[in-house]
């Protein structure tokens, strides 16, 4: 994991994920949404569905557990398999994006004010061990950045 970013920067950068993806996908036709650069690579639709579901079922749940519980256990989730299990490729990419907008808004609502003690609250994560709210938010941002870059690469081949 990268060094911890300042709390203000984290909130700002997380809030930029949706506008960045909106700009990248604005006006795309459905063929471009579903374009896969290679046989084992995801389409933009799959990336957006993944971001939506991970926000809803992983990031939000973990951060919420830290707001509600003392030292919660946060199980690891292997979410890449969802692309096939949930048939992301056949879903409506623009609708998945609209759903991502809502899930990200809900996730951002959990961020405490800068300097609040919640940023330092700890939980126990399957893969990362003792982890703070702050560290988890950094992981969310790293995850976003990875998939934004993936969308850039997909668009370069479309």
Explain what this protein looks like in three dimensions.
It contains six helices and three strands, in the order αααβααββα. The protein has helices at residues 7-25, 30-34, 44-68, 82-85, 93-108, 133-157, and strands spanning 73-74, 122-125, 129-132. It has a three-stranded mixed beta sheet. 59% of the residues lie in helices and 6% in strands. Strand 2 and strand 3 form a beta hairpin.
The radius of gyration is 16 Å
Largest sheet: 3 strands, mixed
Estimate percent helicity: 55-70%
Assigned CATH superfamily: dinb family like domain
Name of the CATH first level: Mainly Alpha
Low-confidence stretches: none
Task: Record the strand order, biggest sheet.
Answer: 1-2-3
Mean pLDDT: 95
Number of domains: 1
Sheet-strand content, in percent, reads: 5-15%
Q: Supply the number of helical segments.
A: 6
Total strand segments: 3
């Amino acid at each position: 994991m990268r060094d911890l970013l300042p709390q203000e920067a984290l909130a700002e950068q997380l809030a930029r994920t949706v506008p960045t993806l909106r700009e990248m996908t604005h006006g795309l036709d459905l063929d471009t949404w579903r374009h896969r650069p290679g046989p084992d690579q995801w389409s933009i639709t799959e990336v957006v569905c993944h971001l939506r579901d991970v926000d809803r079922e992983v990031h939000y749940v973990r951060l919420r557990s830290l707001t509600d519980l003392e030292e919660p256990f946060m199980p690891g989730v292997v979410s890449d398999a969802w692309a096939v299990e949930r048939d992301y490729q056949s879903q409506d990419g623009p609708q998945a994006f609209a759903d991502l907008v809502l899930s990200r808004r809900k996730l951002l609502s959990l961020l405490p004010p800068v300097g609040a003690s919640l940023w330092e609250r700890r939980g126990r994560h399957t893969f990362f061990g003792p982890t703070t709210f702050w560290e988890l938010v950094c992981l969310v941002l790293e995850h976003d950045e990875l998939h934004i870059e993936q969308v850039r690469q997909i668009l370069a081949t479309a």
